[in-house]
Amino acid sequence: MDRPTKFSEDIVPLSDLKVNPGRVVGQVDTTHRPVLLTNRGRGVAVVLSLRDYEEQTEERAFLRGVVQGLMDLEEGREMDLADVKKRLGLS
Q1: Considering the entire predicted model, what is its pTM?
Q2: Can you give the pLDDT at residue 1?
Q3: Rg (CA), the chain
Q4: In which element (H, E) is residue 85 found?
Q5: Strand ranges across the sheet with 42-47
Q6: Cα dist. 60→18, 49, 57, 70 in Å?
Q7: What are the backbone angles phi and psi of residue 55, rounded to the nearest 5°?
Q8: How far apart are CA 24 and CA 72, in angstroms?
């Protein structure tokens, strides 16, 4: 579940990361909220925990597959179950 951004905590100047990278890494790991790194007041990068990154990557891949499947159905690209089993060598 996405947690809402806390702007008072989740926007960090790049200079703060240079001084105490462990604090920023610990924060994203504990809160499961990304941290926006800024340089001269402009966003330059996002720090995200590895677990959260992997979960988001898997979710995006799943959603892309669902959308592709719905597009295939809409455009008439479908197969019945018997043909799928035959194609996969399961029949």
Answers
A1: 0.72
A2: 57
A3: 21
A4: helix 81-88
A5: 11-13, 35-39, 42-47
A6: 31, 17, 5, 15
A7: -60, -45
A8: 43
